[in-house]
Structure formats: C-alpha cells, structure tokens
Amino acid sequence: MAARSALLAAGAAALVAVAAVFLLPDPSSRLPWPQQRRRFADMILANATIYTADPARPFAAAMAVRAGRVLRVGTYDSLKEFRGRHTKELNLSGNVVLPGFIDSHVHLIDGGLQLARVPLRGVRSKDEFISRVKGAVRDKHPGEWVRGGGWNNDFWGGDLPTAAWLDDISPDNPVWLSRMDGHMGLANSLAMKIAGIDKNTNDPVGGTIVRTTEREPTGLLVDAAMKLVFNVIPEVFVNDRREALLRASRHALMRGVTTIVDVGSYFPGTSENQTWQDFSDVYEWAHSMGKMMIRVCLFFPMPTWSRAADLIHERGRSLSGWIHLGGVKAFLDGSLGSSSALFYEPYEDAPGDYGLQLLDMDILLNATLESDKSGLQVAIHAIGDKAIDMLLDMFDKVVSLNGTKDRRFRIEHAQHLSPGAANRFGEHGIIASVQPDHLLDDADSAGKKIGIERAERSSYLFRSLLAGGAHLAFGSDWPVSDIYPLQAIRTAMSRQLPGWGAPWIATERLSLDDSLKAHTISAAYACFLDHVVGSLAEGKYADFVVLPSTSWSEFADDIPDHVLATYVNGKQAYP
C-alpha cells in the first residue's frame, strides 16, 4: 500500500510539473506591465500596401511599431509574435503606405507667417491683386504695416506691379509684398518714404532698386535692395512667430510631411540674426514645451558658421529626435523670375543684363573652407548656369584643399545647367536640392527670359542629374511654392503644365520610384538623417503616411492629391 501511495504521489507531482509548463501562463505575463509590453508591438499595420523605400525589402504587407520606431516590416504572419493584449491593430484594406515625406528646402516660420498675411499666390490680374490688398488694408489701423506675398507677374502677362497700384488704396499704411520667389518685393510710396528710398538712393551691392527712365523708384526692390525696407519693418512678436511654427507644422502634416530642412528666415537683404532668434525663441521654446510636431533639420546663415560650429560642438548634431543641426547656407545669385539668376548669356528681355552675383567668390570660398573644416554641411543657393558652374569649380577647390570625406555638399535649386554640368555633380556626390513645382511657375516664362532654346537645353534637368551621379532631394521652398509632395511627384513624373498639350522637356521626366525616393530616402541622405528617417526599416522612426489609393497599381496610375492620415512616431498626427 505504501508503494502504491508513493507511486500516486509521484504521478501527481509529474502532472503538476507538466501543467506548470503547458497550462500556466507564460512567466513573463507575471512581470510588471511595462516589462511585459516591451515584448510586444504598440501597433501593427495589417493588410496594407507598404512602400518602404528600403532596397532590402521594397514592399511589405504589414508593419509592427513599438516605442515610436519600426519594429519589423514583412508579412502579417511574420509579425504575429509581436501581438499582445494591448497591441492596436490597424487593418488598412490594401491602402498604400509611404514613408513620411521629407521636404528638403523650406522657410518654415516664414511659411507659417504667410498663412496669416495677404495671400497673392495664384492672382491672375492687376484688379485681383489690388482687390486683395485693399481687403487687407481695411482690417488695419492707420500706420500699421500690411504684408503679403506669393505674387507672380507672369500669371497676368508679365507686367511688373508698381507702387502706383497700391498708393490710392493704402495712403495711411505702409505695404510690403514679396514676389513668390522671395528675391523681389513691392513697396508702396509710404513704405519707401519710411525707408528713405528716393531717386538719389544708390543701389546696394548685390541688389537693385528698379527705376523709371527718370530714375524714380517704381517700388520694386531686388535681392539686397530689399534690406532697405526690411530695416524699417517692425519685428514680428515672438508669440506670433511661435504660433507661425505651430500653424506651419499642422500645414505640413496635412500634406504628409513629417521632416523638413529649414533653411531659415535668411534671404538676400535680411538680417543673419533672425534665424538664430528663431532657433532660441521659437524652436527651443517648442522643444522645451513639448510642442514639436514634425522633425526639423536647421541650417544657419554661412556668415555665422563659427557660431553654428560652436553650437554643434557644445550640444551635438541632434538636440533630440525632433531638432537636428544641419549646417550653413549662403546665396550666390538670385532668381529667374526676378532676372537676378546669374547666367553666361544675357536675359532676352534685358540685353546686357546677366543677373546678379551676390557674393565675392574669395569670401565664399574662405567661408566654405572653414565651414567644411568644422564639420558643417554646406548648402549654397545657385539658379543660373554660370552661378552653378562657379560653385562646382569652388567645390573642386574645397575638396583639393580639405581632402576627401563624406561632406554631401548641397546646391539649392540647381535650375539651369550648362552643358556637362550635370555630370560634375556626381564627381563629389553633390546633392541637387531641387523643387519640381518651381517648374510650374517657370516653364511659361523661361522662354521669354532666356530664350526657348536655352530654356529647353538647361532647365530642371532632373533625369540628367541622376544619370550624372547627383543625389536628388525634393523640396518646395515654401512659402515660394506650397508644401505639396504628392503634387511635386506628379510634376517630376509628367512635367505637364495645365493647358499644355505636351510635357516640358519630356526627356527629363522621372520614374515614380525615383520621384518617391527624392522625397523620402534620398532627401534623408541629403541632410545626414538617412539612419533614422526616409524609409520604413527596422529601428527607424515610425513616420509614415496613409493614402486613399487601395493598390499600388491604382496609386501609380493616378497619384492622389491628398493623404488620408499622417503618423509621426507611430502616432496619428493628422487628421
């Protein structure tokens, strides 16, 4: 009997042991919830059409997200191990998912301010121009400045506006209205009087006061001449600039943009201090208050390169996942629309006018050498073919003097190239930071400005740049053009203007894949952020957009004009 009892006891013990292994909960489930949760995803996207921009796995059907990062992309079955009790599952029913768009060139706070000023983008007549300004004047007290921008004289036939358009409707209010490219602006007579501009005022270096044949100022100021008015416009209150950042960030998220390169409130004629004030008073404020909504990579005016280098040395390149310190920016020339881009040949409508060189090349070379030695990324604005070649020659000298390294020089805009220039970009892996939607503004006027043959030979050579080894990074230059990546991608692929029967320079059209990469992974590479954003790959931030297209073929055949949702850090940020 004793033996039998011992045998039963042993059997019971064995059953308990088996139950402990197979029937009881996983021991990890008895861990505190924060430790349990680390084993599982916060969210799984299922039944999706995911374009990852990662060559190792270009497409996937599902993605797991944990703690704001991509945990894994793949098939739904391959992600099941990450499902837990608290994992949110988002069934997308085939909807296309893309990495969050990166806008490689914006003036973010200025864009936010412009959203609250006189909107002149798209105005197509003198009467409409005057009407919009008149409406804004009605809301102002006497003496208060009226500001606005976005006008493009090519939209109403080419005639440039003058102060006379404004004087009768704004006798008691100074007015300043910037052209869409930011390289020209219009002041009314009261604004010019306050600024001390008259027929005896000399043109500043790097700028032009447009005049009548009697040398009277017309109200138009080009590039560095704009400083004459900027110097007398009251500073925008800090709270207004902070609100502009929040307004601009919401606008970007609505368009699917999760990261931007902010080249600052720095234009020819403006103070170098404004960008630094925005950094300390706006960006650091938003960061400390937990109000950042999108990621930013900041560039500072090149004349302040030593200050930028000191800041990076003191605080590192990333203040957090939200704010990254990129480098420095300079201007070499102006713009096509303002006839200040620098060309080898004169403008068709202004014989003898080749554009403006805004900086002495020795000064620019020395500042670039020092910036480069300090580890700063260098971005320089150049639009005309001569300006671009001057930069390419200068970059050759910098590489020769400072040696070879991964520096990722950037040429901002790179709109009009001389023969052979596209191939020179590849020699040093230069970034071509381009804005496809500028093509929509320039295609009609380029032939008038520089002649049809020159325009069609040199303009917006995206495919040639890629073939020459350049890295393409798409942006908007907002508020010059609107933040609108889906439209920019359509433009780069079609080069089709409204009302045109054929594409403009059809041989320079890009594929869908090249266009997407220019707004995602290539744009991330262009600002040294490709290790954390730009593609949906393990360990990167879970920044992505959901589109209304329900299959890849539907998306490729008809790129939509809006996003359904934008996610940052795996959390819905829009709508």
TrEMBL record:
GO molecular function ontology, one term from the record: hydrolase activity, acting on carbon-nitrogen (but not peptide) bonds
Domain Amidohydrolase: 89-574
Superkingdom of origin organism: Eukaryota
Pfam short name (any one): Amidohydro_3
CDD domains membership: YtcJ_like
Name of this chain's protein: Predicted protein
Protein species of origin: Hordeum vulgare subsp. vulgare (Domesticated barley)
Gene name for this UniProt entry: LOC123445542
